[in-house]
Amino acid sequence: MRTIWRYFSSYKTLATVFLLGLFIEVAYAVAAPLSLQYLVDLAFTPRDVQVFFIILGILVMGGSLSIAAGLGGDYALSKLSGRVVQRLRSQLFNHIQKQTFPFFQRYRVGDLVTRFSSDMSSIEKIIYSSVPYSLKEGLSTLLGLIVLFSIQWKLAFAMLLGSVLMFVGPKLLQGRAEAANTRYKEAQEQFANTMDEAVKGHQTIRALHQQNRFRQRAEKQISQLFTFGLKVDVTGSLMERLPLTALLILNGTMIGFGGYLIFQGEMSVGGFIAFFTLFMSVGQSGANLSFIIPDIIESSISIKRISELFDYQPDVPEAASPIALGPFEQEIQMNKVTFGYTEETNQLTEITLSITAGSFAAFVGPSGSGKSTALQLLSRFYDPKSGYVTIDHTDLRLVSEASLREQVGIVSQNTYLFEASVRDNLLLDNREATEEELFEAAQLARIHETIVSWPEGYDTLIHSEGSSLSGGQRQRISIARALLRNPKILLLDEITSALDPSTEADINQSIEQLRKQKTIISVTHRLSSIVDADVIFVFKDGKILDTGTHQELMQREGLYLEMWEKQHGFRLSPDGLHATIDVNRLAKFPFFAGVEFSELESIAKLFSSETCKEGDTIVQEGDHGDKFYIIIRGRFEILKQISGAENHRVAVLEDGDHFGEIALLADVLRTASVQALEPSLLLSLRREAFLELTTRYPHILETVGQTLVNRI
Predict the structure, then answer these.
(1) Which CATH architecture has domain 2-311?
(2) Which contiguous run of DSSP H or E holds residue 391?
(3) Residue in 328, 316, 310 with CA at minimum distance from that of residue 409
(4) CA within 20 to 30 Å of 602's CA: 120, 165, 263, 634, which one?
(5) What is the pTM of this model?
C-alpha cells in the first residue's frame, strides 16, 4: 500500500479530487442511517410533518451532492489509476532495457513475461479496485464508529472489542496465503518458460522426437498450477468466511446487549434502529476490509517480485556525466584487460592490443580462447575487472551509450530480425536515410537483388524472427542494417560460420569493399576469410599468443599454422552440401601416418558427406559406434553425463576437428554425445567400408591399429 501511495502522490490534483469525492460519498452513507433516529423520535412518533420534510430535504440534497462527488471521484480514480499503471509499466520496461547480458541470463523469458502479465495484473487490480475500495470501507468504518459512539457509547465499545474477531482469522492465515501465492507464481513462471522453449524450439523438438518429454514436463507443471492454485483459492475462501462468521456473532451480541439497554432506559427505540442499521453498514465495511486481504497478499507478492527487478542494477552502468564520443580517428586499445563472467574465473588475462583506425583486424583462436569475449568488451556489453578499453584514448566506461552505438556497428552470428517489413528492419529509427542509401547498404551486403526479386520487395514482412529466410539472407540483412547506420567501427562476430561457401564468398567480398572506409574487427574461426587482414591476434587460454599478418604468422610455425593446416585440404561444392578430402590432409591424421599415398587415395574415396541442423545429435553417448567423422564446416559440442545428471559440455569442436576414430576398428560404445551448435557439414567413414578396404591392404589395419589400440 505504501508503494502504491508513493505513485499516487505524484499526481496530487487527481489524488485530491478522488479523496475529496470519496470523503463526501462516505460521509453521506454514514450519516444517512443516523437520520432514522430523528425520523422515528422527532417526526414519526410525534407525527410532525414539518420536521419530516426538513429531514427529507436534507437527505435529498445530501444524496445529490454524494452522487456528484462520487462521479467526480470515479473519474479522478480512473485517470489516476491509469496513470500509475502506465508509469509503472513504462518504468519497468525501461529498466529492463538498461540491463546487460547477466540480467537476461538470470531471468528467462517466462520469468519476465509472467511479471509483466500476471504480476502486473495483480498490481493493476489492487490499484483500480482494492486500494480505493479499502479506503472507502476503512473511512466508512472510522466515521461509522464515531457516529455509533455518539448514539450509544457502551454498545459501540462492546462491538469494537468484538470486531477483533473479524481480523484474527485472516491474520493467522496470512503466512500460509503468502506462501501459496509465491509457489503459484513460481509455477506460472516455470510453465511460461516451458511454453517459450516449446514454441521457439518446435522444429528441434519434432526432429529429435522429444514431444513426449515436453508433454510430460508440461503436464507436471500444469498439475502444480492446479495444486498451488487450489491452495490459493481455499486459503482465500477461508480468509473471507471467517470474518462473516465473526460478524454473525457480533450481530447476535448487539441485539442482546441493545435490548438490555432499551429495557434499562439507556437507549431509545429510534436510537437502537439507527444503531442497528448503521452497525450493519459498518460491520459490512469491516468484513469487506478483510475480504480484500487475499488480493492485498497476492499483490504484495507481485510487488516484491517486480521490486526485485527494479533492485537489479545494470552490470554495465552509464557514467553519472557521460562523455559524447566524437568521430573515431586514431586507435582502439585494450590495456592490461582482465575479465571473467564470474568472480571465480577469468576468460581474459592481461590483454593488451591496439588497432589503428581504418585497418582490418581479426581475432582468431580455438574455441574458448577468449576472442569473442574480447569483442564483447569492445562492444561494451561488459566492463573489464581490471585494465581499460579505449577508443581514441577515451575509456568506454566514461562514454555515453548513445554516442558509442553511433560509432560502433555490431553483426553477430545470431541474427535477430524484428516482426516488421524488410525496410523497417533495415531502417529501424534511422528515418533520415534515403532510398539510395538503403539500396546501397543492401547492395554492399549482397542482398539487394534477392529482396527486389520478392513480390513485395522491401515491403516484404518478416515473421518469426526471419524463420522463413535462409541463414545467409538473415545474415546479409543484418549486415545491411549495420552498414546503413554508417558506423566508423564494424565488429563482426563469426558472421560466416553458418553460411555456405558461395554466400561466405559474397560476404567476404563485401567486407573487402568496406576496407579503408571503416575499421573492421572480425572474430572468426575460419582463417580463409582473414588472410588479407592488416593484423591478426591469435588468442589462446584468455591470452594473446601471437600477433601479425597471415604471412608472418604462417612463417612462425605456431598455433596459427596448426589451425590453418587443420582447416585446409578439403574441397567443397559451391552449395556447401558436399565435400572431399585431399590425400595430403588425410595423411596428417596421426592414425593414418605411415599409410601409402596410393592407399590413402582409396580411403579418401570412402568418405561420404553428411549435413546436419543446429541441435542435431550426431553421436549419442552409450550407443554403438560405427563411423569416423571429420568436421568440414560447423561447430559441435561434446556432451557427457556426469553421475547420472544432465549432460555437461566438456569440449567444442570446429572446422577440421575429428571424432569417433576408434569406431574404425571395433564396435565400442560411444563415451560422449556430439551435438551440432549450428548448421554443419561432415565427412564420415563407415567401419564396414574401411574394414573391407583393409582386406585388400592388410597392413593398413596394422598401421592404424598401432595408433588406436591403446585407446580402446
Answers:
(1) Up-down Bundle (1.20)
(2) strand 386-391
(3) 328
(4) 634
(5) 0.72
